[in-house]
Protein: FecCD family ABC transporter permease
Organism: Streptomyces sp. R33
Amino acid sequence: MSLTSLLRWEAGPIGVSVRPRVAVAVLALVVTGFAGLIASVSLGTYAIPVGDVLGAVLGFGDGAADLIVHELRLPRALTALLVGAAFGLAGAVYQAVTRNSLASPDLIGIAAGSGAGAVAAILIGGVTSAGAGTFGAVPFGALAGALLTSAAIYLLAYRDGTITGYRFVLVGLAANGALIALTRWLLARADIDQASRAMVWLTGSLNGRGYEHVQWSGIALAVLMPLTLALARPYQLLQYDDDTARSLGIPLKHSRIALLVLATCLTALATSAAGPIAFIALGAPQIARRLAGTAGIPLMISALTGAVLLVLADLAARLVLAPTELPVGVLTGAVGAPYLLLLLARANRAGKGG
């Protein structure tokens, strides 16, 4: 059987077709994600055998293993999976709708706007970034900042009845710089304790994440992911040019705005739980497209790729300089910098700015 032929399952009037390569990619990502989750819970300064990890998860662990698994590592690893999936899905929508591989929320100001809103909530509201009973204010600050930023970028990039990916990215880069300056100004006006809490959050870290983060991220993702998948048809058609998409019968403007609003909410969800983490939203969609071998960016595989990337990055950040632990945002930023240079070089060779 060729990897390009279609597999089809039918149950009465309902049938599903999938390419074998896509099915293999999904299976490989699920297995890698599960293995990364187990490794993230098992490995560390105090190593726990895999059997004891599974026993603790199933409620049969001893005291020490049970405490480490449930209080420290399992909620952190689950948060990494959920946040990575949200970043991957958001990056896929932004890059597909704008038809520009540089249109990632961590580059065009959406994550920076979310971060500025969350920092304002931390500083003005006096809440902690680690979720000690007052975590609820951070997501709403992040969501407000992300939505305001996304609306401003869209309106500034909108011209002659449409937006282009190149203009959207340029306006986003300018917004990103302005919002970083705003965040620094907020930090400069804060007292040292508030600024320290906000700075830890701004580096992008999963340290100290608990089940309240898993619960919040899981509920938000359970709402936002189905809504995004429900718009799969306009999502696929928007990857063509405007005339083609319009001729195929989709309401271009409304579909684009709906998808961007959902992607903005996904970015706010991820940023509020772990801080602005670079590279995941930028790299996951392009890696997913190559894994699936599709012309367009696949939504679900992008989400799975983002989840796998972040859980493995967090594991590496804990182990690479052990016993010193790096914030995961530092590691992803170090990996993302050369990847961004590669994208820019390719865009320069293509002569279309991405």
Remarks:
- Residues 154 and 257 are 9 Å apart (CA to CA).
